[in-house]
Amino acid sequence: DVEPKVVLVTGATSGIGLAIAKRFARAGHQLVINGLESVTDAQAAIAEIAGNGPCPPFYFEADLADGAESFALANAAIGKFGRVDVLVNNAGIQKVAAVEDLPPQDWERIIAVSLDSAYHTIRAALPGMKERGTGRIVNIASAHGLRASPYKSAYVATKHAVVGLTKTVALEVAEMGITVNAICPGYVWTPLVAAQVTDQAKVHGMSEEDVIRKVMLAPQPTKKFVQPEEVAELALYLASDMARSITGAAISIDGGWTAK
Ligand code: NAD
């Protein structure tokens, strides 16, 4: 009963991005998805998304560490479907190291993938949204867009910057029917995090349960991981018409982390 929207989700082959793509597919929308993988390696994710809705997703391989490829990704969506109605900037990477030990190439790549790529997809998608007088931009930031943790300098800097970019663009388009928001999740249960639990249990000589409660979820008052599907539901809501008054917001979904 809803008009299908063209929804571009970056980093949609895994974790939160995959859950978002599946949720929008289930709502009947046309997905344009991206990941670092070749189209062959992305087949499982593509099939999963396709299985959730009526429109097969369009996969576009782009290394978002490269600004030109990020710009090309959004333009590919526009070239194929004529528009991007919903842009979800989700791709992100991190590295844990003391600031002086963080190699410059890692600093640059982290900032390029999460921050610069969002700038490039936004500058490609926004003119069409302005013309149509409607659009939604959802940037997946983090609790680390609002709070810091040691040894995550590039990641924390990037996520704070994503929140700043979100607010600025929101103000620029506030009267044009376009909203721009950031979602700030705490620890989300993704394959990446699951693997960390096993590794940390070995390193600390602790049970996996203790690693989760005492190490990983120490800052998360609920002591529970956020599930990717919860983030996806929030993204879908922000893309809805009823969310038209929510803009320039950094919305926490973090089990109480930033209440402290
Ligand atoms: P993930 O590692 O499971 O998935 C990352 C996705 O990004 C993959 O599809 C990968 O192919 C893609 N990607 C990575 N580098 C890329 C590049 N250079 N070009 C194109 N695609 C690239 O990660 P996730 O846990 O689902 O995280 C997704 C987003 O959510 C990130 O921005 C992350 O910072 C944020 N986040 C995650 C958590 C968490 O606990 N998992 C918490 C807060 C915020």
TrEMBL record:
Molecular function via GO: 3-hydroxybutyrate dehydrogenase activity
InterPro entries recorded: 3-OHbutyrate_DH, NAD(P)-bd_dom_sf, Sc_DH/Rdtase_CS, SDR, SDR_fam
Any GO BP: monocarboxylic acid metabolic process
Pfam families reported in the protein's UniProt record: adh_short_C2 (PF13561)
Transmembrane segments: none
Superkingdom per UniProt: Bacteria
Family: Belongs to the short-chain dehydrogenases/reductases (SDR) family.
Name of protein: 3-hydroxybutyrate dehydrogenase
